[in-house]
């Protein structure tokens, strides 16, 4: 996908004077999306075209996102686990008292048979 930003010429000249404006804009977008939890590290790495995870780690560290501040991924993992627990609980509630043609599929386990 191509994205076009409209920046007044005088501002673009001033902003572009200190390096590649296109790359800086992409990096700023990627960093903000990572901070907001909408991008995971592998996605950030892919978006920015880094060959190794060390490059993406260095990118994050130089922008103040060292290991101590990177809590979005563990938090996202915790939310995913909570969601999984919820699905499992709903499934267990659904199958409670369900039988297969009048047979209780769990009965042999309760009786100790396998």
Task: Tell me about this structure.
This protein has 114 residues and is mainly α. The chain has two domains: 1-70, no CATH class; 72-114. 61% of the residues lie in helices and 0% in strands. The chain is built from six helices and no strands. Helix 2 packs antiparallel against helix 3 (41-48). The protein starts with 8 loop residues before the first helix and ends with a helix.
List keywords for this structure.
114 residues; 2 domains; 6 helices; single chain; mainly alpha
Q: What fraction strand? A: under 5%
Question: How many strand units?
Answer: 0
Measured as a percent range, the helix fraction is 55-70%
Oligomeric status of the shown chains? single chain
Could you write a compact summary of the structure shown?
The protein is mostly helical and 114 residues long. It is built from six helices and no strands.
Q: How does the SSE layout of this entry go?
A:
Elements: H1 9-16, H2 21-35, H3 41-48, H4 53-62, H5 72-95, H6 107-110
Helix pairs in contact: 2-3
